[in-house]
């Protein structure tokens, strides 16, 4: 569909994305990599440097360098900060792969997690697209590690977690890590021009959205055992976990909706074939279910973090990234169908973000609100994540997007 924003709205999103990318510099840690930003957008020096944060910050900086060219030349050194950490202090030089975190005042886990490794692939793809000289080798290394340990060709899904020496695989499989594997594989496939990675993304999407989600009436289960049997009560006693919350995670349902539409763009004319119609149908089903079951379900505006499998809100805090993914999915669905409903939600969610989440004093987005839309830090303290907000600002500016790296890459 040929849809576009009014010029003034597009300009505002462009400027907002640039203001967010500028905050990457604040996260540069003096010991290397990118650290955790506090509520005032200052890096917290006594917290560890985490691989997922470093990779996301590197990704954002690389996209902005590609988007703005010389106007973002001041951000190019930040690509070196990310690259140096991902090839230096965060890399496990003894056993391969990447440690979850280093530094800080407390001992850090040394387990190897698919979630963080998917973000290393994403950062490396963006570095490669941005022309960083170390990007291609880092991307090949990250893909090789992922292929060797995390990718399960038989199931067409990613494994979750190993010990540091790769000798023991956790008896758990997660949809969250597979979601970010889809994102990483779309970026790698587009940047390298290698369809096998795009094919992996499509395999995961078919199983997750057209099997797990559809057969549960879009109440997407997140947690499984090693044989991909659902664990419906997983983390019932820890419902507000940052990465493995109990029940249905509304923001992930929205994120899967957008990713299905991104992947659909890889198919070209074949997207109309019956074999692939599930991508559009499921994207619409996921979006409508997430909005219907997550928005204003407890008497206040906003999207709740989680519900149970009967649609009862469990964790009622409003997290910024959930709104960001709602915005991105709404625009992607509007672009794909031309339907007015998703566009209305795009405007409504932005209005909510403007009212409650954008921090006019310090910049960036408040990461969490209470069930009554007051600032909160029950689940997330500070502002460690620019990636969701930055990307949701870009989605309407990148029609036909497969991956952000591919869409922002300079042509010619």
Report what the structure shows:
The structure is a single chain. The relative contact order is 0.12. This protein has one domain: Glycosyltransferase (Alpha/alpha barrel). Helix 10 packs across helix 11. The model has no long low-confidence stretch (mean pLDDT 97). It contains 14 helices and 12 strands. The chain is globular, with a radius of gyration of 20 Å. The strands form 6 sheets. The protein has a two-stranded antiparallel sheet with strand order 1-2. Strands 3-6 form a two-stranded antiparallel ribbon. It starts with 6 loop residues before the first helix and ends with a helix. A hairpin with a 4-residue loop joins strand 4 and strand 5. The longest helix has 19 residues. The protein is mainly alpha-helical and 412 residues long.
Oligomer: single chain
Characterize the main sheet.
2 strands, antiparallel
Structural class: mainly alpha
* Cα-to-Cα separation, first versus last residue: 26 Å
The number of helices is: 14
CATH class: Mainly Alpha
What are the SSEs and their pairings?
Blueprint: H1 7-21, H2 24-27, E1 49-50, H3 51-68, H4 76-87, E2 101-102, E3 112-113, H5 114-129, H6 135-150, E4 151-152, E5 157-158, E6 161-162, E7 173-174, H7 175-192, H8 195-213, E8 223-224, E9 248-249, H9 250-264, H10 277-294, E10 306-307, E11 318-319, H11 320-337, H12 340-357, E12 368-369, H13 387-394, H14 404-408
Antiparallel strand pairs: 1-2, 3-6, 4-5, 7-8, 9-10, 11-12
